[in-house]
């Protein structure tokens, strides 16, 4: 995905592509996926974020569309061009297998888990990948 086509600020690029995500998730993953590429880095350094969209309704028009219930939303944030290569390699080796395992677990999770929102995030830290669950601090 060309940064020029997405109007990404100069000096930034995405560490992963849609093909990377599709390859990691595989063809057997039947869960609906909403893939988004952010145009600005996250303040906490997150590069890859996945969230479970539970079935939430509201009488006041603020609930989520039933068409996206029980699906995942994946967001990829840009990183400085100078760090892209090493971050990409680390994400491919560590974060994408974890992303695939997380989405498989979400698909077969018990009802109690599936009825509430969950997330997992990854960021690049000095040649390694740190992760966090449900917006807790990175470990």
Summarize the structure.
This protein has four helices and seven strands. By secondary structure, it is an alpha+beta fold.
Protein traits:
single chain; 139 residues; alpha+beta; five-stranded mixed β-sheet; two-stranded antiparallel ribbon; 31% helix; 27% strand; globular
Major beta-sheet overview: 5 strands, mixed
Count of individual helical segments: 4
Helix-strand string: HEHEEEEHHEE
- Global structural class: alpha+beta
- Specify the overall morphology: globular
**Count of β-strands:** 7
Beta-strand content: 25-35%
User: How far is the N terminus from the C terminus?
Assistant: 30 Å
Helix/strand layout:
Blueprint: H1 3-6, E1 12-13, H2 18-25, E2 33-37, E3 46-53, E4 71-76, E5 79-80, H3 81-107, H4 111-114, E6 118-125, E7 128-133
Parallel strand pairs: 2-4
Antiparallel strand pairs: 1-5, 3-4, 3-6, 6-7
Describe this structure in words.
It is a single chain. The chain has 139 residues and is of the alpha+beta class. The chain has four helices and seven strands; from the N terminus they run αβαββββααββ. It has helices at residues 3-6, 18-25, 81-107, 111-114; strands at residues 12-13, 33-37, 46-53, 71-76, 79-80, 118-125, 128-133. A hairpin with a 2-residue loop joins strand 6 (118-125) and strand 7. Helix 2 packs parallel to helix 3. The longest helix has 27 residues, at 81-107. It is globular, with a radius of gyration of 15 Å. It starts with a helix and ends in a 6-residue tail after the last strand.
């Amino acid at each position: 995905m060309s940064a020029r086509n997405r109007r990404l600020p100069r000096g930034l690029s995405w560490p992963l592509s849609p093909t990377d995500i599709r390859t990691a998730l595989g063809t057997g993953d039947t869960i609906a996926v909403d893939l988004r590429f952010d145009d600005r880095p996250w303040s906490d350094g997150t590069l890859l974020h996945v969230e479970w969209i539970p079935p939430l309704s509201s009488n006041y028009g603020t609930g989520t569309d039933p068409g996206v219930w029980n699906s995942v939303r994946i967001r990829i944030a840009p990183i400085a061009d100078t760090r892209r290569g090493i971050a990409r390699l680390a994400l491919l080796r560590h974060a994408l297998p974890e992303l695939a395992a997380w989405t498989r677990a979400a698909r077969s999770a018990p009802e109690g888990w599936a009825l509430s929102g969950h997330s997992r995030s990854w960021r690049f830290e000095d040649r390694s990948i740190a992760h966090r669950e449900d917006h807790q601090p990175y470990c």
